Amino acid sequence: MKRLVTCLPLLCLFSAPALAADYKIGFNNALSGVYCLDILENFAIYAADALDVELIVVNDEATIEKSIANVENLIASGVDGIIYFGLSDATFAIVGKMCADAGVPFVLYDHLPTPQTLEHLRSNPYFVGAVGEDDYDAGYPIGEFAANTGAKTAVLVTGQRGDTTHEARVKGFTDAFSSAGGKVLDVAWSATDGRAEALKKSEDLLVAYPDVEVVYTTSGEPAVATMEVLQKYADLDIQYYVTDLDPPILEGLQEGKISAANGAHWINSGLAVALLHNFLEGNAIKDANGKAPVFHVPIIVLEAGQYKAYEEQWLNNMPFTPDEIRNLSVKFNAAASADTFADLLANYSVEQRVMDKYEVGLITEADLERYGF
């Protein structure tokens, strides 16, 4: 699948020969211009550059029809592989068949298939694996964190009923908080229908439960509205938690309006690139059962005092160096395997990443103090 590069002699007289990318890989952004999706694209490009891969990015414009058409066009353009974000579980099987028919390997990123769909995909020889997050694991650590403060009551602001992302985050928080002796008093559903709806749902909860100790919003979209409402009730000293680390959420952390937030699972896109790169290099990574692997990226909790660490070491600089990305691929590391990915993810946290960078001299002791470590 590698392409040989030929340099024209005349060109070589005037400049050093430019090296072409080893592979061209297609990558779909579900809706360009949305922060939480663009950051996935940015890290995928970063990883691709580290691995000498050209990433061909397409915009699905938030429609399934466009998503399928984009995959069709990427295959027709001759890409060596595809990194795919599914707008629904049904699209995984459709894209899987398209790739199998064309002999194009593919990896899923961010959104993971249901167990039934995953079983079907694993019978496809061109399904390389998936890297994403479990949304239950987004809510659970926030529920634990809130419970560990001694809080006993909580209300939740979330998306539509039937939306698997939000339902899983609600369940994760509820299970963790309840198991520690807390109680979720109420859940405001459908708060993702625009700012006005989020404001109303949030205010209704605080009016109904003025003595509540914790509010948790399951995504960044309605979180800003909830934060605005909470400022009207600042005298109640309510703890506020959010899943997603959008810029307004980081500002809320910095200003002390948010107790803690979690996210930073957007690294899944770059790891998906590395997983596909191994396959293209002849190293088809398998899990312990010999099947295409599914890697779950931890959704890390960022406390209010740690916003600066995330801002500087995740946003201004990437959380992993190019060498760390290259270490995931057999082209640069002959021992690259599923364990290489698993070890990296097992040590993915704010504290560990900061300390790792400190130990190799990328940040200073003064930085550690500023970050609160």
Describe this structure in words.
This protein has 16 helices and twelve strands. The chain has two domains: 19-134 and 265-369, Response regulator (Rossmann fold, 3-Layer(aba) Sandwich); 150-258, Response regulator (Rossmann fold, 3-Layer(aba) Sandwich), CATH 3.40.50.2300. The radius of gyration is 22 Å and the shape is globular. Helix 9 links the parallel strand 8 (214-217) and strand 9. Helix 2 (35-50) runs parallel beside helix 11 and helix 8 (195-208) crosses helix 9 (220-231). The protein is an alpha/beta fold. The strands form two sheets. The protein has a six-stranded parallel β-sheet, with helices on both faces. A six-stranded mixed β-sheet has the order 7-6-8-9-10-12, with helices on both faces. The model is unreliable at 1-18 (pLDDT under 50).
Quick tags:
373 residues; alpha/beta; Rossmann fold; six-stranded parallel beta sheet; six-stranded mixed beta sheet; 16 helices; 12 strands; 16% strand; disordered N terminus
